[in-house]
Amino acid sequence: MHRQPNSPPARRRARTAGRVAVGLVSLLVLTATGIASTMMTSLLTGLHTSDALDAGGPKSADGALNILLIGLDSRKDQDGNQLPKEILDQLHAGNGTEGGYNTNTLILIHLPAGGGRASAVSIPRDDYVAVKGIPGYTRAKIKEAYGLAKYFAEQGLAKQGITGAELETKGREAGRKETLDTVRDFLDLPIDRFAEVNLAGFYDLATALGGVEVCLNHPVHDDYSGADFPAGHQTLDGSQALSFVRQRHGLDNGDLDRTHRQQAFLASATHKLRDAGTFTDLGKLQDLIDTARKDVVVSAGWDVLSFAQQAQSLTGGNLEFSTLPVEGFEKVNGQEVNKVDVAKVRAAARTAFGLTPPAPPIPEVRASSTIDVRNTTGRTGLAADVAQALAPFGFRTGDVRNLAAGTSSIAYGPGAKDDAGTAASLLGGLPVGQDSHLPRGRVQITLGTGFTLPAALGPHGADTPPGAPAGSPAPPSPPSAGAPGGTVDGGGIPCVN
Prior knowledge:
single chain; alpha/beta; Aminopeptidase; 2 domains; 9-stranded mixed β-sheet; 14 helices; 23 strands; LytR/CpsA/Psr_C; LytR_CpsA_psr
C-alpha cells in the first residue's frame, strides 16, 4: 500500500481510527457535485492506495463499474498500532483484542454503463464459501478470508526479517487480495474498484455529519454493542451510529438484520451528505477530505474524475440495496455458518445488477447408469432427494442409505465414466474416480458434510443438523422477507429491524 505523491499533510485529530466510510461516501458525493477538476485533483491527492486488485483481472463490460466496499472489523490503525483506549470505549469495541481482521461488511455496488439506477448487494459475512491460497483451507466463512490470508502471509514475511509497519502493510495487502479473489470467484462477477472501511468509519462519518438519521421498526436494547434505541426516526451521534450498525444480538434475524442496518446507514448518510450543504462550504469539504486521507484505502489507478459521471446514480438517491440469499444455517467444525447455493447466489447478484442470470448446466448425454447414494451429512432424506433429482436425466435409482462418515465424491464402475461425469456436473462439480469393485454400469455417489443439493435440481428436503438424531427439528430457515429477503431503498431514510 502506498500514498499518491505530493500529498499535503492531513490535519491532526484526536481520533486515529479508520475513516474509510467517510472517504468512500464523501468521494461519491464529491465527484457528483460539479467541483472543478483542478480542485478535485488537489483535494483527492494523498489517499492511501492498494495494489491488491489484479490489474489484469476481469473487467465489467461496456463502461459499467463494480465497486467492492470492504468493512474491516479491526481495532488497529494502518500501521498495526492499537487504537487508544478512549476511542475503543467510545466505540463499545472491547479492549482491542476482539474482531481480528474479519470483513464484517462486504457490499458490491454496480453502476450501469450510461447511468441509470445503481444496485448494491450485501454478502452475509458467515457465508461458507470456497477459498484459495490459504494453507490448510479449502472453505471458510467469507469474512475470514482477509484475516487468514494476512496471518499466513505474515508468517512468511516475518521469517524474512520484515517487522513493524511494513509487516502490517504487506499482510493487509495479502488479506485484501484474498478477499477480492474470494468474492469474485463466489459471485462470478468482475470487481473494477474497491474501498476498505475500518470499524470506526461509521463513527467518524456520523460525527463529521453532526449525526445521521435512522429509522427502527422496533425498540432495541443490546449490552454487547451498546445499542439502546426506541422505535421510529431518530438522529444518532458517532458512538450510537456504530452501535446501530454493529448490533446483531436480540434481532430476529441476527447478522442478516445487521446487514440491513449497514445498508440503511449508508443510504441515510448519503442522503444527509447530499442535502446538508456540506459541499458548498470549502472548510467542511477540506475536513472531510482530511479524514479520508487519514485511513482511506482505495484501489490504485482509480480515476475519480472519470468516475464523476457514474457517481450521479449513488448521490442522487437512485440506489437500491439487496442481500444475497442463504439456504439455511448449520455448524461446521463448531462454527455457525450460512449454507449457500452458489448458483442461486450468482443468479441473484446478476438479477440485481440487471444482467442475464447464467443458465443451469444441461448435460448433453442422457445417462443410463444405476446410482447408489450414500448420505453422510446427517441430514434426513438427502440421499433420496439426490436420487429423485437425477432420475429425470436417465439415472436409475439403486441402493440409497445413510452412512456415518465420508466425503463428497463420485465413483464409477466399468462403462459408467461418462455418466459419473454427468452426475458430478449436475451436483456442483464433485470429484470423480474409478472404483474397480463396482459392477458395470454402476455409479456410487457419496454426500459429505457441507454438501447442498443445487437449487436447479429441485427442493432440498428436510434438513437435520449434522450429528443430530433423526427427528430433531431442522435448523431455522432464512426469512422470506426483510433480511435477506427484502430490499433497502437508498433514496432516503429506510426503516429496518
